[in-house]
Amino acid sequence: MCLGIPMRITAIDGLMARCEAKGVEREASLLMLEHEQLRVGDYVVVHLGHAIDTVTPEHAAEAWAIYDQMLAATDPT
């Protein structure tokens, strides 16, 4: 299963963005959202190195709450 990960944009350089979630930073292409008015601080869903959609901070938090529950359910401790 593949998941899109909600991440906050921390820097933009042309069609590339530096994004962060849970202390992890990644580069993501903004090509698929090139017609959006993206700014530092916006949230995007990143899948396979590409920002594929925008989300509100609230939706990003909801998604991470679900991901945290999934990770907790698979934790062997």
TrEMBL record:
Entries under InterPro entries matching the protein: Hydgase_assmbl_chp_CS, Hydrogenase_HupF/HypC
Task: Show the Gene3D superfamilies listed in the entry.
Answer: 2.30.30.140
Q: What single Pfam family name could you report for this chain, choosing any that match? A: HupF_HypC
Tell me the GO BP annotations in alphabetical order: protein maturation
* Superkingdom assignment: Bacteria
Extract the GO molecular function terms from the UniProt entry.
carbon dioxide binding; iron ion binding
Entry's family note: Belongs to the HupF/HypC family.
What PANTHER family would the database entry show? HYDROGENASE MATURATION FACTOR HYBG (PTHR35177:SF2)
- Spell out the NCBIfam families in the cross-references: hypC_hupF
Q: Please identify the protein, giving its name as recorded.
A: HypC/HybG/HupF family hydrogenase formation chaperone
Q: Organism, per UniProt?
A: Thiohalocapsa marina
